[in-house]
Amino acid sequence: MSAALPKVLCLKKGALLKQVFALSRAATPRESRLCAAGDALVSGHRHYKSRPTHGIGRFKYLLPKEVPKKKKDKVQMREINVGTEYEYGDLNIQMTSYDMCLVEHFAQYVHRLCNRLSIRVNESYAMPTKTNEVLFLEERGSKMQQDAVLTTHQRVVQISGLSSTFAPILLEIIQSNQPEGVHLLVKEHTEADFKSRLKSRRELEELLAQMN
Prior knowledge:
This protein is an alpha+beta fold. It has helices at 4-26, 29-43, 100-116, 167-176, 191-196, 202-211; strands spanning 91-97, 120-126, 130-137, 144-160, 182-188.
């Protein structure tokens, strides 16, 4: 009788192990994850230390996709508006001064004035700065010495569609508010005015002249 008891106990243990194995197979993924987490906590071994950390701190996937930048087209000259008998075409209001702040503020004033008076402003831009050196000749010498350097700043406000009856009124308002030290000039827009805004390439111009 005593020899039969261990055999029965062994059989019962084997049946229990089979049942546990079957239940572990039938467990859901969530339960298996919980069990794995529990095993990790119980064991105390940190698995993440042996894994690479690539991808931690990435946030670019949260941002919207960037649109590829388009290449800037070459600056092309627009067709010049000649005008009619009753209104002017493209006119350039040129303001020149040695003081950059003064001419910049006056150009802003002219631009806002045209907007208030419903005069169409095509564009407002700055011309390249020009530098002039003032030299003087000594009384008993032949060498020229530098006396001063003058920097000229120019701003242009281009308008179009100005009626011939309203033009004198506009010019009178601008001249009455013209600050001291600012030279004012109103002229028709030409192709030479457009080319003066672009940087000249002397080497290219010389090669073109040789080809022609």
